[in-house]
Amino acid sequence: MPGSSSPPFSAESYFATQPPPPGLEQDIAGVKEFVKRQTEEGRKIVLVTSGGTTVPLELNVVRFLDNFSAGTRGATSAEYFLKAGYAVIFMHRQFSLQPFSRHYSHSTNPFLDFLEIDRGPTSQEICVTPSKREDLLQVLALYKAVQAAGTLHTLTFVTVNDYLWLLRAVSQELSTMKRKAMYYLAAAVSDFFLPRQKMSEHKIQSGKGSLHIEMDQVPKILKPMVEDWTGKDGYIVSFKLETDQSLLIPKAQAALRRYGHQVVIGNDLNRRKFEVVFISWKSPKATISEVDSNLNPESRENSFEESWLRIDITDSNQEIEENIIAELVKRHTVWVGEPESAAAP
Ligand code: 9Z3
User: Fold this and answer.
1) Beta bridge partners of residue 88, listed in sequence order
2) Which atom of ligand 1 lies nearest, measured to the CA of 267?
3) According to the UniProt record, where is the region Disordered (predicted)?
4) Rounded Cα distance, 329 and 325, in Å
């Protein structure tokens, strides 16, 4: 079995040894139905992943490792994709932010603060605080329109294992869309996990001094995702999160070189709300083998294009996701082979 003294998990050995989450089959039946309807109605589909994954330390889980992410990037991006005419499969960490309701998050903007009691002589009514009406009406109108159009399909995960199984199954379903499918991987995914076979059944007991846990590396699933699950046709965008700004570009380039997908969006933890960098291939036709056959490391680095996107942090009405999605919609339109004028929402 993989572990400290055994080889790391490949995607194949991971799925052969780690159990699928309960409910996977039902989730996928829902996705199949959604993909079928959206295809019939001629929409492109984007899979948006959002929120952090957990790594439980016990089978009867009391403690777990978590990855930072409130789900803001994913939920906000999903709204802009919907606005651009995409159908969205929103795969998110349970209880993380969701499109539309994110505007009224319980901690930053509790919805009860938007309501007032109108006391009449015989009865009481609820009404929305007048100063909040316009904003609420706008969000509500978009939310209802999306519900009526049936263009948003939501799936939830909690653990990194749920995430990996769902991602593989949803990608395989979406691969029938060929180039019309986009994959926008904004979830914060753990690099480490504890294989089921090494987990303690019950709560780990204290009293024996410090706790030593050795975790295995989560297999690099982007490679099979690019090459097998999506049939090499999907437009795949991954995010690279760093806290050391100087690592952002080299790590994003390394990811692109390693997996051969279309775009890596680099973001620094503390600057992510107002600055991101797009790393992509200079020539969209460049393939991994073309680049790999170029043995000169310097010209290898020349294979990438770097483009920064920034917004004014002092303007609270701007959301960087609006610009990110506008740029991706343009690039995806080219990828699909449609005229660029088709990118306008
Ligand atoms: C991101 O980098 C997201 O933009 C954030 C969004 C998690 C920073 P919030 O939800 O934060 O708005 O609070 N996501 C990808 C993070 C990640 O796990 N990337 C892996 C890596 O950096 C590669 S897939 O190694």
Assistant:
1) 46, 152
2) 2
3) 1-23
4) 6
**CA–CA distance, 331 with 345 (Å, rounded to integer):** 14
Give distance in angstroms: CA of 222 to centre of ligand 1.
14
Q: Express each pLDDT in 22-56 by its tens digit.
A: 999 999 999 999 999 999 999 999 999 999 999 99
Q: How far is CA 95 from the centre of its chain?
A: 15
Q: Are residues 88 and 18 in the same domain?
A: yes
Question: For position 295, what pLDDT does the model report?
Answer: 47
Residue pair 200/254 in contact by the 8 Å Cβ criterion: no
Residue 20 above 60 pLDDT? yes
Domain count, the chain: 2
Extract the tokens encoding 33: 């139905």
Q: What is the model's pLDDT at position 283?
A: 75
| Structural domain of 165 | 1-104+133-205+212-233
**CA 284 from centre of chain:** 23
> Is 164 within 8 Å of 217 (Cβ atoms)?
no
What is the ipTM, given to two decimal places?
Answer: 0.96
The closest of 232, 221, 143, 230 to 187, measured between CA atoms, is 221
Same domain for 74 and 199?
Answer: yes
CA distance 237 to 262: 6
- CB 91 within 8 Å of CB 77: no
Q: pLDDT tens for residues 130-139?
A: 999 999 999 9
Q: Which helix (H) or strand (E) holds 300?
A: helix 297-301
- Number of Cβ atoms within 10 Å of the Cβ of 310: 12
Instruction: Answer whether 102 contacts ligand 1 (Cβ < 6 A).
Output: no
Q: Of 94-103, 199-208, 235-244, which range is least confident?
A: 199-208
Question: Ligand 1 mean position to 239 CA, how many Å?
Answer: 6
178 residue type, one letter:
K
Same domain, 189 and 86: yes
The answer, yes or no, to whether any atom of ligand 1 lies below 6 A from the CB of 276, is: no
